[in-house]
Write a structure and sequence with these properties.
There is one protein chain. Helices cover about 30% and strands about 30% of the residues. It is built from 5 helices and 8 strands; from the N terminus they run E-E-H-H-H-E-E-E-H-E-H-E-E. It has an 8-stranded mixed beta sheet with strand order 1-2-3-4-5-6-8-7, sandwiched between helices. Strand 1 and strand 2 form a beta hairpin.
Length: about 180
């Protein structure tokens, strides 16, 4: 376990915990994002949190994948990749925040901010020059959250996802430069 702040910790996700991961994501993803999908997000959760996908993701050497625990209870996940590049960002030593999902019952309690502050500090210790992420352009709370942390939009694009409502496929690639020089 990695302590982030009192009562908030990270526990590495392992392949043997795929069932726990899947059930947690069915519980916390759909209430927030069901409006994006024709089927309430069930197929997305099934495609992203099944055993084969988890094995594939954990086999990537640069991946860091955690359960987020608050008061010893699993309330979300955090997944990021060190040294992850994209065409819109010049640096090669940049971290991609791939997933941060928290149970809606803990939204507004500063947990997301604490996790992001931890990720920023961790990335600096890993000599990363920036952190980048992809944010849906319709999820304004998330967009404003990242902007408040200093992220800036570097590129807009559209997801190619046939099970997602077409008007919800807009994405923003955002980047935060780190002062680690």
């Amino acid at each position: 376990m990695i302590s982030v702040i009192p009562d908030l910790s990270l526990q590495p996700v392992s392949v043997k915990e795929q069932g726990k991961l899947f059930h947690l994501m069915m519980k916390i993803y759909r209430p927030v994002y069901q409006h994006l999908w024709f089927d309430d997000g069930t197929s997305y959760v099934a495609s992203q949190f099944n055993l084969e996908q988890l094995q594939r993701e954990l086999s990537t050497p640069s991946v860091c994948y955690y359960f987020v625990h608050f008061k010893k209870e699993p309330i979300g996940i955090l997944r990021f990749l060190k040294d992850s590049t994209t065409s819109a960002i010049k640096e090669t030593n940049t971290t991609k925040l791939h997933r941060i999902y928290l149970d809606p019952s803990v939204h507004g309690q500063g947990i997301g901010k604490a996790l992001m502050e931890w990720l920023i500090a961790f990335s600096i210790t890993q000599d990363q020059q920036s952190i980048w992420l992809e944010c849906m352009d319709t999820q304004m709370a998330a967009y404003h959250f990242y902007k408040q942390l200093g992220f800036k939009t570097v590129e807009a694009f559209t997801l190619d996802s046939p099970t997602m409502r077409s008007e919800m496929r807009g994405m923003l690639r955002m980047k935060l430069n780190l002062n680690n020089s």
